[in-house]
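Lecture notes, unit on protein representations.

Consider one protein chain, 164 amino acids long.
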Amino acid sequence: MKTLACFLIMMISIAILVQCGIAQEKSDKDEILTVVQKFFDSMAARDTGMARELLLIDGQYYGVREDLDTLHIKRRAHLDYIESLSETEDEYNERIWNPTVMVHGRIAVVWAQYDFHINGKFTHCGVDAFTLIKTQNGWKIAGAAYTIEPEGCDQSPLGPLKSK
């Protein structure tokens, strides 16, 4: 009887630990997606302070665009991005859908289709791939790579961009 009781306690303990692990993973994924959404919000608001809080300052990102037979790869440092954000008068809106989030310890990747609008007008779509690192101050965007596809875009499941 004592062996059965120990076995049951052990099995219940394992079940609780598994559930805690699943809950932590879900919590991390939610936090990661919140950081990515706040990044888009900071872009739309041209809020350099918020952008600075969300980005690892020495990070960078790459935009990849093809036209005809030419491949264009644009690299930009996070500091350059923040500076340009403060200088623009344009309103940028980027929306992602159906994101895939992968987490391992303190690193994470978010992969999602997106559409992009400038001043309310659709300009292109593509795929975003963000890399994030969990610091002592929470998840931060370390870098990103994204495609720029002005044509051949599927209709966004989010519908048309809503006017503000």
